[in-house]
């Protein structure tokens, strides 16, 4: 079961928060957490879960003030739901507000690992036809599918191959190179998780020092006049932002060797695929890699540094805005685009972009110049995941999309095998269920 505690609405002004598994304290009335909690192997006698909201008092004292209980029987098996849930107060004071949750509950029998061998072998077939079929079908279930697939391929040292094949499929599917990696798909979910697993040392080398400097600084890098305390701050803020941009680009541009070889290899694959598809598109080899590295790695890490282990706590509000401004400027530089009339207050950054365009092109080419890393040794990363559970998740997703797979199987022989294996595993699972009963 996966629960993401997202945000709340109209909480009483004195509330903090500490739901089950404990979020960090946030100020009322509209706290925003967006914290993810994963509960594996929930005991079968658990039929509901309760989230309790507490006041974070002085000296660490806390008091329970409101709660909500959700019955697991009300959740569709394997489907993600995102809703506002009303809170009930411990004492009657009127309305207690509501909590927004994104929940995915999966009740699945996990058979012994050897039962899933046919499915595993099918997924690992050369060219990955079964994976490509799932990529066309997975929508709301793309995140659990991405996790399960990446674990299944990583276990046998083929995580980079999975990412490469899905990346190639993403290029084949896209009609506009400027839209690469902007859609939510199985491919982008796998790539995000692949980079999250490999790129923390690179982020430490490239941006961690700047992140900490912005968190510690009293000076703001805000340029939006509607978000400044005083219009007189504009000049100092701009000078500070440009100084930070010079520092972080130097750090990034001198760190290509810190980027893991599998990720650099994928960048090279992406360049070659994009140039082959759009040979007359100027700068396409640069922009597709910048979308991969900046749009989905460096800029998200700047905006959410705690999620990438770049800081221990949430940055203070002024630092969060500064980090956002830096990410915004780097994204434009990575896209080789200056700021325009829509945001006139950002035009002060354009000389910096013009000065660094060529350096960005050179950096992305250097980053992409890496040979194929080859297969990693099985279990080289001391993986702790349960492969039977991951394959059970993939079987569950295949069952959910069985009708669509059956339609695809009429013209694709490789998909017929996936349908056959899915139906066979379903029969085996029913036999195990009968034994349990």
UniProtKB/TrEMBL annotation:
Species the sequence originates in: Plutella xylostella (Diamondback moth)
Segments traversing the membrane: none
A family per Pfam: C2
Protein name as annotated: Ras GTPase-activating protein 1
PROSITE patterns: C2 (PS50004), RAS_GTPASE_ACTIV_2 (PS50018)
Domain C2 intervals: 1-85
The Ras-GAP domain, residue ranges: 141-335
InterPro entries: C2_dom (IPR000008), C2_domain_sf (IPR035892), Ras_GTPase (IPR039360), RasGAP_dom (IPR001936), Rho_GTPase_activation_prot (IPR008936)
Keywords, sorted A to Z: GTPase activation
């Amino acid at each position: 079961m996966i629960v993401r505690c997202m945000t709340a609405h109209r909480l009483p002004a004195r509330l903090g928060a500490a739901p089950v598994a404990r979020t960090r304290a946030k100020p009322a009335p509209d706290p925003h957490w967006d914290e993810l909690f994963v509960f594996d192997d929930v005991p079968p006698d658990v039929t509901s879960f309760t989230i309790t909201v507490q006041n974070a008092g002085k000296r660490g004292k806390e008091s329970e003030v409101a709660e909500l209980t959700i019955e697991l029987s009300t959740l569709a098996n394997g489907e993600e739901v995102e809703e506002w849930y009303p809170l009930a107060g411990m004492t009657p004071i009127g309305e207690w507000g509501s909590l927004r949750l994104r929940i995915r509950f999966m009740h699945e029998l996990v058979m012994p690992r050897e039962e899933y061998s046919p499915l595993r072998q099918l997924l690992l077939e050369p060219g990955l036809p079964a994976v490509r079929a799932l990529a066309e079908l997975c929508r709301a279930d793309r995140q659990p599918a991405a996790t399960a697939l990446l674990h299944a391929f990583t276990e046998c040292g083929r995580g980079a191959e999975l990412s490469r094949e899905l990346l190639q499929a993403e290029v084949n599917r896209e009609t506009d190179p400027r839209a690469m990696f902007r859609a939510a798909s199985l491919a982008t979910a796998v790539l995000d998780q692949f980079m999250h697993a490999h790129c923390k040392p690179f982020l430490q080398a490239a941006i961690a020092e700047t992140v900490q400097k912005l968190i510690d600084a009293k000076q703001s890098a805000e340029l939006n006049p509607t978000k400044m305390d005083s219009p007189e701050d504009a000049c100092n803020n701009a000078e500070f932002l440009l100084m930070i941009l010079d520092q972080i680009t130097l750090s990034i541009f001198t760190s290509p060797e810190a980027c893991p070889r599998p990720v650099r290899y994928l960048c090279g694959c992406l360049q070659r695929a994009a140039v082959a598809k759009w040979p007359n598109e100027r700068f396409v080899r640069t922009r597709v890699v910048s979308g991969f590295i900046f749009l989905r790695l460096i800029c998200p890490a700047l905006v959410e540094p705690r999620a990438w282990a770049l800081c221990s706590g949430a940055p203070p509000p002024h630092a969060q805005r500064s980090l956002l401004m830096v990410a915004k400027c780097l994204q434009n530089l990575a896209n080789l685009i200056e700021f325009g009339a829509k945001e006139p207050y950002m035009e002060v950054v354009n000389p910096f972009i013009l000065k660094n365009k060529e350096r960005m092109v050179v950096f992305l080419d250097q980053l992409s110049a890496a040979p194929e890393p080859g297969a990693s040794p099985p279990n080289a990363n001391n993986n702790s995941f349960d492969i039977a559970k991951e394959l059970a998740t993939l079987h569950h997703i295949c069952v959910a999309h069985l009708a669509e797979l059956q339609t695809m199987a009429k013209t694709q022989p490789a998909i017929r095998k996936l349908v056959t294996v899915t139906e066979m595993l379903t029969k085996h699972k029913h036999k195990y269920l009968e034994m349990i009963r």
